[in-house]
Amino acid sequence: MLGVELDWPTIGVTKKRLFGRVDISALSPGASRPVIHDGETLGVALLGKTGTARPLYVSPGHRVNVDSAADVVARLLAGRRLPVPIYWADRLSRAAARGGVWGSGDRYARGLVCEAASGPTTPGGSFRDHR
User: Fold this and answer.
1) Hey, what long-range contacts does 101-110 have (CB within 8 A, 24 or more apart)?
2) What is the distance of C-alpha 130 from the center of its chain?
3) What is the pLDDT of residues 33-88, one digit of tens each?
4) What is the distance in angstroms between the CA of the first residue and the CA of the last residue of the chain?
5) For residues 92 and 112, is the Cβ–Cβ distance under 8 A?
6) Quick one: 37 and 18 in the same domain?
7) Structural domain for 88, as ranges
8) Which DSSP helix (H) or strand (E) runs through 57?
9) Domains contained in the chain, number
């Protein structure tokens, strides 16, 4: 809804297929297959290159088509199972749920914030380096 209200492009990503049918057998790393319902392509099952056999399910939202949505998500995987923004949102929300992140003195959570800001591929980008 927010994408429609603000007229921003949006993409849906989930770890589980919510609707439609797709054959994920023998899906190779980096490949995708369409998720179909009543002959219409709703999205894709996208298998990252992390070694997992569990694909992500990508669907277009507002102002985005299926191919563009799959391309954006594939580019944001950066060697992880989840796209980078979702990966960091998940890690930081879990740290917050443990009582950390903002002003609590949680050194682990502060390290996550530093790593998220600097990026995991920059020198010293690991949270272990920021303790």
Assistant:
1) 107/131
2) 24
3) 999 999 999 999 999 999 899 999 999 999 999 999 999 999 999 999 999 999 99
4) 39
5) yes
6) yes
7) 84-130
8) strand 56-60
9) 2
